[in-house]
Amino acid sequence: MDSAPLLNNDGIIFLFLYLFSLIGVGLLGYYSKKEDSLGDFYLAGRGMGGFVLFLTLYATQYSGNTMIGFSGRAYRQGFTALVTVTFMCAIIGLYFIYAPKLHDLSRKHSFITLGDFIYHRFQSIHLTIIISIISIIALGNYILTNLKAIGFIIEGATAGQVSFVNAIIMLSLIMVIYETLGGMRSVAWTDMLQGILLLFGVIVIFYIIYEQYGGLNAISSQLQINRPDFWTPPDWSAKRLWLSTILVVSIGVSVYPHAIQRIYSAKDSSTLRKSLQLMVFMPFVTTLFMVIVGIVGASQIEGLDRNNSEQISILLLVDLAEQIPNISWLLVMFLAAAIAAIMSTVDSALLAISSTVTQDLFRKIKPDSSQKTLLLFGKSISWIIMLIAVIMAINLPQTIWQLFQIKLELLCQIAPAIFLGVHIKSISSKSILIGIYIGTLIALSIMIGNWIGVPIPIKPFGIHAGLWGLIFNCLAIFTIDRHKMRSSIKRIR
Predict the structure, then answer these.
(1) Which of 44-53, 68-77, 465-474 has the lowest mean pLDDT?
(2) CATH for 9-398?
(3) Half-sphere exposure in the Cβ direction for 75 (13 Å, CA)
(4) Does the structure show a pLDDT above 80 at 403?
C-alpha cells in the first residue's frame, strides 16, 4: 500500500495499551475464580449476568467476517449483500427455538460442552465423538478466518509496517495468554470491553463515511457510473441463492459450540431471554452499517480484486484520514473495534475447542482424571490449537468469505441433533448418526469435487452444499424414525 500509515505513533501506543490491558483482565479472571473445576473455568461458574451475557454474545457473534468480509462482499456484490442483515436476524430467532430449554437442561445435568448434551440425550459415545470432531473442525476454521482478518487489518492500517504475519503472531499470543489465565470469566470480561468498543466504533465510522462521501444521493449517483450492475434486479436464480444463504448461515451460526457455552453460562433463563431480545437489534446497527460501508467503497474506489476488496474498510479509512484533519483518534478507535470483534470471536472459539477436546474426548479416555489434570490438559490444548491455527492462517490462500462458508456447511449437519434432540424424544441416536454421515458426505463431496476440478457446481441450482447435505440429513432421520415419530404425534393428539 502506497499511502501513509493510518496508525501514527500515538495510535500504535493506544492500541498496544488496549491489547495488553486484556492480559490484565485475564489476570483478574484468574484471581476471581471460585474453584479449580471445569465448570468454573469454562462456564464462569454458571453465574453470568444479563449485561455481561449480552455483550459477550454480541462480541462473539460479530467477528472479523463482519468487519472485513461483509464489507468486502458488499463491494463485490452490491445491494444483494443486504442478505447478511436478514440471516443475522434469523440467527437470533433460531436461538429462541432451543436455547431456553437447553439452558434449563444444562443447569439440571451440569453440561459443560455441546457433547455433554448430546451424550445425555442420545446415550451414544460414537455420536458424541462425531459431533465433537465436526465442532472442532468448524471452530478451527472459524479461528483461521478471523486470524486472516486481523492480519489484513493491521497490515492495512500500518501500510505494511507491521506485516500480515507479525500481526497474526502478536495478537494470537495475547489471546491465548488471557484465555488460559481466566477461562470463560476472562473471555466474557474482555468481550464486555470489546463489545462496547465494537458498537461505538461501527456507529462512529459508519456516520463519518456516510456523511463524508455525500450521503445517499451522492453515493447512488456515483454507483450508477462506477457500478451500474448494482442496480440490476435479481433474477430467480439470485433470489434462490439469497434464501439458501439465509438458511445455511442462520442454521450453522445458531449452533456454534461457543455460543452454546454462553447459553450454559447464563445465571438463569430470564437473563438469557433478555440478552437474546437485545441481540435482535444488533444486525441493524452492526451488519447493516458495515454492508453500507462496502457499498460506499464501491462508489469511490474502482477495480479491486477479490482479495483487495476485503480491505475496502481500511482503504476508506486511509482516504478519510487524508481528507479530514484531527480525525485520527476516531479511526484508531474503529481499528480497535475491528480488532476487538476478531479477538472476542477467536478467544471464544479457542475456549470451546479446548473444552470439547478436554471434556468430550480426553475425559472419555481418562475418566478418572482429576479436575486439576483436566484443567492443565485443557489449557495446554489451547496453546497447541493456537499454534496450529497461526501456521495455517499464514499459509492458507482462501479468502475470508470462502473460509466462512466451509465451517457453516459442516455445522449445518449437527443442527438436527440439537433442534430435534431438545424437543422430540422419539428421535434416536441411530437416525441422527446416519443423517450426519450422509449430510456431511454430500456437503463435502460437492465442495471438494468443485475444488479438484470435478464438474460439480459449488452451489447446485443455487443451493449451498451444506443445505443439500442438511436436506438429505433430515430425510434420513425422518425415514429411519418415521414410525416412532408417528406414535409421538398420535400421543400428543
Answers:
(1) 68-77
(2) 1.20.1730.10
(3) 29
(4) no
CA nearest neighbour of 299 among 373, 218, 198: 218
Is the separation of the CB atoms in 485 and 426 below 8 Å?
A: yes
Beta-sheet strands, E only, within 192-235: none
- Number of neighbours of residue 416 by Cβ within 10 angstroms: 24
Q: What predicted TM-score, i.e. pTM, was given to this entire model?
A: 0.88
Instruction: Please give the angle made by the CA atoms of 42, 46 and 49, to the nearest 5 degrees.
Output: 115
Lowest mean pLDDT among 133-137, 214-218, 436-440: 214-218
**CA 348, CA 57: separation in Å to the nearest integer?**
10
Written as nine digits, the cell of 453 is 476440478
Rounded-to-integer distance, Cα 145 and Cα 69, Å:
9
pLDDT tens profile 406-422: 788 899 999 999 999 99
Segments making up each domain of the chain, as ranges:
9-398, 424-493
Report how far residue 432's alpha carbon sits from residue 134's, in angstroms, rounded to the nearest whole number.
14
Spatial contact of 392 and 373, defined as CB atoms under 8 Å apart = no
Bridge-partner residues for 294, per DSSP?
Answer: none
In tens, the pLDDT along 136-171 reads 988 988 888 888 878 877 887 777 778 889 989 999
What are the two backbone dihedrals, phi and then psi, of residue 397, each rounded to the nearest 5 degrees?
-90, -15
